[in-house]
Amino acid sequence: MEPRMDLLTNELGAKLGKRFAGVGLAIQQTTLPRSTQELVMLRVSQINGCGFCVDFHTKEAAAGGETPVRLNLVAAWRETTVFTEAERAALALAEEGTRLADAFHGVSDETWERARKHYDEDQLAALVYLIAVVNAANRLGVIVRNQGGSYEPGMFDSYTKN
């Protein structure tokens, strides 16, 4: 399967991409723990089947100090002992917020309350935006068939800072 287009080399795609990346940068600068952000982005990308994003978030998390065991177990987080209760709450929110079409209720009150027990209002806002943004990024990657495997940690640092 060949990529359909490179959004970063298209003038309009690059312009929109920089603004899109700006939201991600603002989320990174919140008090929501970076490790939680990476786990959530990885899990959402796994659910959506975005190979590029799974590659990206796995490698960025590893470069940030995340352990191989935790990265390998994100897809089965419910059946593991390696995630904190706060991380589990964030992963549950991420899954329900991603699988909106799979359930009639969207995000359950139980899942929301579990997240509220572990995160303050600003962290919850960051988490909600993070889930929405990574879902949108996954859709961009899947639509244009971005391929996983070639990402190098920090590859887009200059892109997001310009």
TrEMBL record:
Residues 18-96 form the Carboxymuconolactone decarboxylase-like domain. The keyword Membrane does not apply. It comes from the Bacteria. It holds the Pfam family CMD. Keywords: Oxidoreductase, Peroxidase. One of its GO terms (molecular function) is peroxiredoxin activity. PANTHER family: 4-CARBOXYMUCONOLACTONE DECARBOXYLASE FAMILY PROTEIN (AFU_ORTHOLOGUE AFUA_6G11590), BLL7811 PROTEIN. This is AhpD family alkylhydroperoxidase. It comes from Kribbella voronezhensis.
